[in-house]
Write a structure and sequence with these properties.
rod-shaped, six-stranded mixed sheet, single chain
Length: 310
């Protein structure tokens, strides 16, 4: 084959030989014996069917063909050094990009705090966030549209496929939202709320299923009077006295001053959801992915009642 010895090692050897003035000096620079270096140059010349060096009484000089290869070798060496620098910068977290999938509740709370921490420590890391529902996040992971995804699940949620790796971040407990002047106090029993009016997230939102399952276990069906499109709307209706609401605690990270957060009695065992960082099981974390994961875990320790320490 004509390109058998048209390789990077031989090109860099040729460059060392010309820059240092002799095959002996070039071989020493390349950590080769003079004999091995001479054989490589000879095989290169046979491979391209023309000489690359003129052997002089004292030293060498490149032929026209040698100059062509030297130009390419210099360019290749510059690119290889640049690549090495880029890899060192990546390892040192001076740069890097992570595409992250998320969902609105966690984006507005846990992720926002995590990104602040990340950017303070590693300002050159670029995080590209896409918000979606859980099924879409799983599809985005499989399509490699994102490297990581923040996801939630309850005990009854359909398991993610075996091809996904799930790293626990936090347990997001369920709390009660009431108007600021409500008489309802902490550690309230769900059964004591059987005659209350309830506000839910509409369109079969998972939080609505938490309410229905919990009330069924407590022996009553909730009287739902309002279906809201988002948690801001839920809070507004609670503040207006329309009803009370059962919501994930992360949804209250930025709650209004005219609503209160009430904890349920532990005896009721109100379902909580697990927050995880998902990735393809076969995907290895880059340094930037590790940094983002660590920042999210640190944010969980600050914001969430039950963070999972990694």
């Amino acid at each position: 084959m004509a390109d058998d010895y048209f390789d990077a090692t031989t090109l860099f050897l040729l460059l060392d030989v010309v820059e240092h003035g002799s095959i002996t000096a070039g071989a020493e620079r390349a950590n080769l014996t003079t004999s091995a270096a001479s054989q490589r140059i000879t095989k290169l010349e046979k491979s391209i069917r023309q000489p690359v060096l003129v052997r002089l009484p004292r030293g060498v000089r490149p032929t026209e063909a040698g100059e062509i290869l030297l130009d390419r070798a210099r360019l290749f060496r510059r690119e290889m050094r640049a690549a090495h620098g880029d890899l060192e910068a990546l390892r040192g977290l001076e740069k890097g990009t992570v595409r992250l999938g998320s969902f609105p509740t966690v984006s507005a709370s846990l992720l926002a705090e995590g990104l602040k921490r990340l950017h303070q420590s590693w300002p050159s890391i670029d995080i590209q966030v896409r918000s979606a529902l859980r099924p879409q996040l799983i599809e985005m992971l499989h399509a490699s549209e994102v490297e990581l995804a923040l996801m939630w699940s309850y005990d009854w949620t359909e398991s993610a496929e075996q091809s996904l790796s799930l790293v626990p971040v936090a347990t997001d407990r369920t709390v009660l939202l009431v108007a600021a002047d409500s008489a309802v106090e902490d550690e309230v029993s769900l059964a004591a709320l059987h005659d209350q009016r309830w506000i839910i997230r509409n369109n079969r939102h998972p939080a609505s299923e938490v309410l229905s399952r919990s009330c069924e276990a407590a022996g009553f069906a909730p009287r739902v009077v309002y279906g809201a499109s988002d948690y801001q709307e839920v809070q507004a209706m609670v503040a207006a006295g329309v009803g009370i609401a059962m919501v994930p605690e992360l949804a209250t990270a930025h709650h209004r001053s005219d609503v209160r957060i009430v904890a349920f009695s532990d005896q009721d065992k109100i379902p909580a959801r697990s927050i995880t960082i998902a990735s393809l099981a076969r995907r290895q974390y880059t340094p930037a992915m590790y940094a983002l994961s660590q920042a999210i875990h640190e944010a969980a320790q600050k914001l969430v009642v039950d963070p999972i320490r990694n």
